[in-house]
Every structure is written in C-alpha cells, then in structure tokens.
Amino acid sequence: MIAEWATSDDRGVTVLAAPGGVPLEVRIEPSALHQRPDVLARIVLDTAALAGRRAARRLRAELTATVGPEAAKTLDRVGLSVPDEPDPDDDEGFGGFLGTGGFGGMAQ
Amino acid sequence: MSGDAYLRAEVAADVQRRLSGVEGVGYDADRMVCAVVSGAGALVDLMFHPAAQALGPKGLGEAIVAAAWNAQAEARQRGYTLLALALGDEAAATVEAADSPAPARAAGWDTVGQPASPELAPAPGPDLRPGPELAPVPDLGLGPDLGLGPDLGSGPDLGLGPGPKPDPQPGLRPAAREDDVSTFDPSIFRSDR
Fold first, then answer.
1. Which of A86, B42, B90, B182 could cross-link B38 (Cys pair, CB 3.0–4.6 Å)?
2. Interface predicted TM-score (ipTM) of this complex, two decimals
C-alpha cells in the first residue's frame, strides 16, 4: 500500500496516510494533548490531508511511470486527484523530493 | 415496467452523482473519536470527545486510526448499497469480486449472493424421526391409555405437550421458518449491502 508521512507545523502530530488521507498511523506528542479537542482534531485532519496528498502524488507518479498517464486519470475520476498546491516542505532542502516518496516513502 | 425496475432505472441514472456524495461515519471502540470518510476514501472530518485526550498520546492515535477505518468501511458499504440498488445484486457482486467483499458481507450480515449449496440442502421428504419434543404425553390419570402416546400426528392436540408442534414440512425449514434468525435476509431493507 502506498502511504506517506506528514508532520504538523508545531511538530506535535505526525500522520502516515494513504491517498485520500485516511490515517494508517497517528503519532501525537504529549505536549499536543494540552490543546482544545477541536483544535487538535483540526491539526490531525490537516496533517492527514497533507500526508494523503503526498501519497496521492506518489501514487500518480508510480502509475504514470508504470502504465502511462491515462491510468493516472483514473485517480481524478474516483476523486483522488492531486491538487496543484505546493508541498509546504518543498522549500526545505531536499524535502520536496523526499516528500514525494522518492525513497520509498521515507519522507520524514 | 414494475415499480422496482422503474426505481432501479431511476437510481442508475444518477448513480455517479450519488456515489460522489457517499460518506461514512465511524467511531473508535470507546466513542471518543468520530471520523467522517468520503466514498473516495478521503478523510473529511474528525471530531474528538472532550475527554478524548485522557486516552493519552498512543491511545488517542490508535483511536483516530480505528475511527477512520470504521468510517471508511461504512462509506464502502454505502457505496456498495448504491451500486446494488442501481445495477442489481449480481453486478454489485461482480464489483465486490474485483475489489473486496462488502463490509457487511465480510461481517456475515448479508445472505444475498450465497447460492444454495446442494450438499447443504436438507433432504427431501418429511423427517419422521421423533425428537425430544415428542416426549410421551404425561399420564394424567383420566382413563385408560387410548393409544395417543408419542404419535402426536394421529390424535387431537390437547395442548399438554411442552414442546412445539412438529413441523409439517421439515424439509423446508431453513427457508421457511420466519423466526430463524439465521435465515433472515437483511437485503430486504436495501441498506445493508
């Protein structure tokens, strides 16, 4: 299964998610628990969404490389298209490359 | 066109629009976390109970994952339900075969699509073997034995026996008994597939 990691801006939440953002693993720092439930839930949701976008981007790249761009359009049809928004880690050295799963999903 | 077929055609016409609106809601075992997942498998919303943080970092993380996967299973189930309504049970079963069994079927809730197995079918003809419910009628001291003993089918029903009446068609029991929960077909509600 293709999945990617993402970490929240405050480093309190780290999520491994499949394309779409359904989390496979959620790691929460003890300090993050002091936030209000709705705030923490939003952070987890946003972090999962980021991880899901990375996973979807990697899935599309692998599909395109393997079976061609037409197959990648299937992702659009099932609602897993990758939005053209920059990855927040893209400006962190090699984070952009690693963030797309260039090394087998070891993005963090 | 029958009412059912007309309804099916109507649903098929906008099945894609309906599928795009499918969502599933799921909770963890303690109902501390509620997740909403779309039919496409995207995590749409996440809500925590005010006491959710008491689970601790590890427990809360696991609760989030559990809630999200339960929500995803419900979303998939709703998608299969819509497919079955629009395309019929056989087409939906074909999609299941290409993907994975619908969550309700995997959980053993659905009997649709399970063809009758000849080797499992009851033997034809009545089963005349006496069971424990055919215990002899107790002697109430009302008179001589009139020969009404264990043969409950040859005399009047006096309502004296503790057991149920013999099934007049025992061979049809698995399909005919309405009070047997194992024969209940939940697809009649059209919301379990």
1. B42
2. 0.73
